[in-house]
Amino acid sequence: MEIFKYMKEYDYEQLLFCQDEESGLKAIIAIHDTTLGPALGGTRMWTYASEDEAIEDALRLSKGMTYKNAAAGLNLGGGKTVIIGDPKTEKNEEMFRAFGRYIQGLNGRYITAEDVGTTVHDMDTIHEETDYVTGISPAFGSSGNPSPVTAYGVYRGMKAAAMEAFGSDSLEGKVIAVQGVGNVAYNLCKHLHEEGAQLIVTDINKEAVNRAVENFGAKAVETEEIYAVDCDIYAPCALGATINDDTIPQIKAKVIAGAANNQLKEARHGDIIHEMGIVYTPDYVINAGGVINVADELYGYNYDRAMKRVEGLYDTCTRVFEIARRDNIPTYMAADRMAEERIEKMRKTKSTFIQNEHHILSRR
């Protein structure tokens, strides 16, 4: 791929290639934008088919983090790391120690965290070499398991979407179809059950389904049946791209709000559901509880402070809906616009400050 052409087109700041022959480390750090602050984004370890595929993933994911952090109101930019290798067989202590030294060398421009293929233990190993890492063990002052916090943020965002669609944010009596009942979704179901919602659930893991049925009185359906059930809210909480040409004609819900990443298979699917009058809560906005939580570690983790910010996702989602109405655009576009407006305001502020500094210096 033409790397500089791609970086210029999407305004990336930095792309770093890190290797350590002794440990087998092959890492790519992509820093998209640091206008709002240092770049924060996780480290993913994956068996990429090619180096080009790894580069594209790092670039794509780092840009996504810029928007996610900006939309969440964090004073952080977007970055991401990918490590090329099999996370099941190729990890070693030396690899993550070496990687930690590379992060330390960036002197705070990039802060990492756990992602697909990496663990809290891996973050602890990185922490041996640098302080620019979040999601470490609670023994080191971290926030611990992010799933309950992410779930609470999704719950708050879902209530905001209900207000937009139904004129009330009460979920009592609402029928909510939850696709996937993993750690985040299970905690989400707990909140929904406590408020009196009626749950329909599905998951390829039958034990997870049975747990939701037993604990929350949920109704279980087969995985392919979840799209067509009669419900008020569809909550995608497993795989991405579940909003697509095949599923959209089946969806009866008035609201789509869930924890999964990349819910729209293509951007045009966001246009289609907008035209159908479905209130869609963009995924990177509603599921930002996890990154808000780990970002609080940068100030010395305080649970109450972090949860107050996560609670604010209600207002963030409401703001997305307001922009969508203001500009007559789908909500997925409105979320991008909200993030871009915040970044642009800060960029102008910084530019004005630098110009004033130069003006003062020139007069001396």
UniProtKB/TrEMBL annotation:
Keywords: Branched-chain amino acid catabolism, NAD, Nucleotide-binding, Oxidoreductase. The active site is at 80 (proton donor/acceptor). It comes from the Bacteria. Pfam families: ELFV_dehydrog (PF00208), ELFV_dehydrog_N (PF02812). GO terms for biological process: branched-chain amino acid catabolic process. Pathway: Amino-acid degradation; L-leucine degradation; 4-methyl-2-oxopentanoate from L-leucine (dehydrogenase route): step 1/1. NAD(+) binds at residues 180-185. Gene3D superfamilies: Leucine Dehydrogenase, chain A, domain 1 (3.40.50.10860), NAD(P)-binding Rossmann-like Domain (3.40.50.720). Coiled coil: none annotated. It catalyses: L-leucine + NAD(+) + H2O = 4-methyl-2-oxopentanoate + NH4(+) + NADH + H(+). Its EC number is 1.4.1.9. One of its GO terms (molecular function) is nucleotide binding. InterPro entries: Aminoacid_DH-like_N_sf, Glu/Leu/Phe/Val/Trp_DH, Glu/Leu/Phe/Val/Trp_DH_C, Glu/Leu/Phe/Val/Trp_DH_dimer, Glu/Leu/Phe/Val_DH_AS, Glu/Phe/Leu/Val/Trp_DH_bac/arc, NAD(P)-bd_dom_sf. Residues 144-351 form the Glutamate/phenylalanine/leucine/valine/L-tryptophan dehydrogenase C-terminal domain. Belongs to the Glu/Leu/Phe/Val dehydrogenases family. This is Leucine dehydrogenase. It comes from Pontibacillus yanchengensis.
